[in-house]
Specification:
Two copies of one chain form a homodimer. Chain A is an alpha+beta fold. Chain A has two domains: 137 residues, Jelly Rolls (Sandwich); 87 residues, Winged helix-like DNA-binding domain superfamily/Winged helix DNA-binding domain (Arc Repressor Mutant, subunit A, Orthogonal Bundle), CATH 1.10.10.10. In chain A, 42% of the residues lie in helices and 22% in strands. At the A-B interface, strand 5 and helix 4 of A face strand 5 and helix 4 of B. The structure holds a DNA duplex. Chains A, B: It holds the Pfam family HTH_Crp_2.
DNA sequence: CGCCGGACTTGATTCCGGTCAAAGCCCGCT
DNA sequence: AGCGGGCTTTGACCGGAATCAAGTCCGGCG
């Protein structure tokens, strides 16, 4: 058990899960931990693509700016998620920390060399990328076809599940307090809505007794079944 | 040059591009060509995931049905595109031919075995999946933030580019006749709009002299720059 | 050649979510 | 505790796309 196991947080969910000890040692030599403050960016769209990373803690977003100026978040990154696009020359999206976050950074070139020498690593990354593609396609369906309330319900359910998986406090139990990693503006950017609409829809869910809020970031799911029904409704 | 090279259409863009002759022979032994009529489906969401395939000709769509009944197309598949999700147990989306199409099918288990034995294959699939993820994320931005006219312009430009790349007749030249692989309904499913809105927006583009239509499927881009400007506009 | 059916277009109206504007509230700071 | 500023809520109004409802056109077939 070398130190890199910690670095990758949850051993069996991380990229490094299947590596032998020699490879783990090599990875730990290549990786560099870095803390990010909330709002701090790791890279911007168009930058030279020089790094890959693993999320150790916190939540980050992947986003693009439209030519006309408003933002669309195309993905959220939780602990054990992978950052970066091997083999590409430039970076496709901004990556910004939503909360305080910590990542384990690898320079892209040596990371690619590690992949060539450890096929398990490449295989892990392939499976992960396929899942991410699937996740992204499911979100396409939300943005293309679902109402504001269904989108919001979907986001809340997704956050709840991801927070529970990464052991960041939440649990699937009813009434558990979840600390939202996003502001209203950031939620609007994910959902393809405006901040006002997000606020109104949260209000409706509260009025219906489906959720309760606590301060700006705190949230409790009181009626999971109702929330799921709203997500599935058109 | 074994027969499989034909199967994969464009050698250097296909999955098999980097395989040695022995592996190519093996691939050709495993693959089975299949023709699909327009409208015919290869698989449905929820099916057991038993196959992978390469698109040889024609255009197919990847789509999901919302619980409430309407369809969202989450991706279009052109010649040399890969179909399937190795390592997954079930199928995530319906796959349906939009035009007459031809695919080269592999059973999933032997395909995965081939991947394990030919790391170039795995590497190719990884790069391809990363590109596809990027494509999907860019489309998220369209569905989340763009108006009907910008979405339509984006789709037309994408179709034009993909048809040109796959040598299916179109060319980037002004006024070239493109045969649209989709009906209005199918365009609406991709764009997250209704058929009426698609029709109206096509009308506007015609009135503005940006495009011209020829029958139901024929289309000419008369002012590429204007079309691109509309795509980039909010 | 004319008919038929499905795809497409066009028009009238409705409604969801955006926009603009004005409070209200949380929370860190002094 | 009091204050200030940014985040959030709430309200009035507007507009773009959906919906509902006729038509019209293309293309295949007898």
């Amino acid at each position: 058990m070398t130190k890199v196991c910690e670095d990758c947080v949850v051993r069996d969910r991380s990229l490094c899960g299947t590596l032998d000890d020699a490879a783990l040692t090599e990875m730990s030599r290549l990786g560099r931990r870095r803390k990010l403050a909330a709002g701090e960016s790791l890279q911007f769209e168009g930058d030279d693509n020089i790094l890959c990373a693993n999320v150790l803690g916190g939540v980050l977003k992947l986003s693009s700016l439209t030519p006309s100026g408003d933002a669309q978040t195309v993905g959220l990154l939780y602990p054990a998620d992978f950052i970066g696009r091997p083999y590409a020359d430039t970076v496709d999206h901004d990556i910004t920390a939503l909360t305080e976050a910590e990542v384990c950074i690898f320079a892209r070139a040596p990371f690619e060399r590690m992949m060539a020498e450890n096929i398990q690593l490449e295989r892990q990354l392939l499976e992960r990328t396929l899942s991410e593609l699937e996740r992204s396609r499911r979100w396409l369906l939300f943005l293309g076809r679902k109402s504001a309330s269904a989108r919001l319900a979907g986001l809340i359910i997704d956050i709840d599940r991801r927070m529970a998986q990464t052991g960041c406090g939440a649990d699937l139990g009813i009434g558990q307090l979840i600390q939202l990693p996003l502001t209203r503006t950031e939620m609007a950017d994910v959902l393809g809505l405006t901040i006002e609409t997000v606020s109104r829809e949260i209000g409706k869910l509260k009025d219906a007794g489906v959720i309760a809020t606590e301060g700006r970031r705190g949230l409790r799911i009181l009626k999971p079944a109702a929330l799921k029904a709203i997500m599935d409704s058109e």
